[in-house]
Specification:
This protein is α/β, with parallel strands linked by helices. The chain has helices at 24-31, 37-45, 49-54, 60-67, 72-83, 89-97, 111-120, 133-136, 143-153, 167-175, 198-206, and strands at 7-10, 102-107, 129-132, 160-164, 179-183, 194-195. The chain is built from eleven helices and six strands. A six-stranded parallel β-sheet has the order 3-2-1-4-5-6. α10 links the parallel β4 (160-164) and β5 (179-183).
């Protein structure tokens, strides 16, 4: 008899937030004069500044300062509040299921940004665990971050359900024995198990 699923692992960008991780780069280009764009491009593409922040190698303040932002706190908040869209249907979904399943946030993000996002949208209370790349210094689809998730939650792979918007992340989790569902908000070509909304994910959880 298969083991009961007890842990729901959920991604942030492209799932709870409608946008994927791509918006901060154009946000930055819009903020700075065109004469600065080559410098900024070098910081993103060659210095891998965003990647370093997402791995926790540098803080949000240092990341934004290196890009040239003076009021780093303002721009973190402005970007999150005005350039990202929260999927409000997550709240009703979480209200229904967070007492039935252990909710885990598994997100590739700058540590400070992730904390602000969940606080700003009032969803901290739904997550018993938070595995953020900026805190654990590795990111999806590295198998290490999934193993950290299993260790911290003290669950087996067979007890987990993972929901993410990235096919590579899904496939990596599946190799470890974690049942994984693509949250296919952007209609990618994928032949595996997938949903397009929290309403569809709700229907899947009803038959567990």
């Amino acid at each position: 008899m298969p083991e009961k699923k007890t842990t729901l692992i959920i991604d942030m960008y492209g799932v709870i937030l409608k946008e994927r991780k791509g918006n901060f780069v154009p946000y930055t280009y819009e903020h700075f004069d065109a004469s600065e764009h080559e410098r900024i491009k070098n910081l993103f593409e060659h210095e891998k500044l965003f990647t370093k922040a997402g791995l926790g190698d540098i803080s949000s303040h240092l990341f934004l300062s290196e890009l040239g932002y003076e009021d780093t706190e303002y721009h973190m908040k402005n970007y999150i509040e005005n350039y990202l869209s929260f999927d409000k249907t997550f709240v009703s979904f979480a209200e229904k299921y967070h007492n039935r399943y252990t909710f885990v946030l598994l997100s590739t993000d700058v540590s400070e940004w992730s904390k602000y996002i969940t606080k700003h949208y009032g969803i901290d209370q739904y997550f018993k665990y938070r595995i953020i790349s900026g805190d654990v210094h590795c990111r999806k689809p590295d198998p290490k971050i999934y193993n950290i998730t299993l260790e911290q939650t003290q669950t087996k792979a067979s007890e987990c359900l993972f929901v993410d918007d990235n096919v590579d992340n899904i496939l990596a989790a599946q190799k470890l024995g974690i049942r994984s569902i693509l949250f296919n908000r952007y209609n990618e070509q994928y032949s595996g198990e997938q949903v397009h909304s929290f309403e569809e994910l709700d229907q899947i959880l009803q038959v567990f």
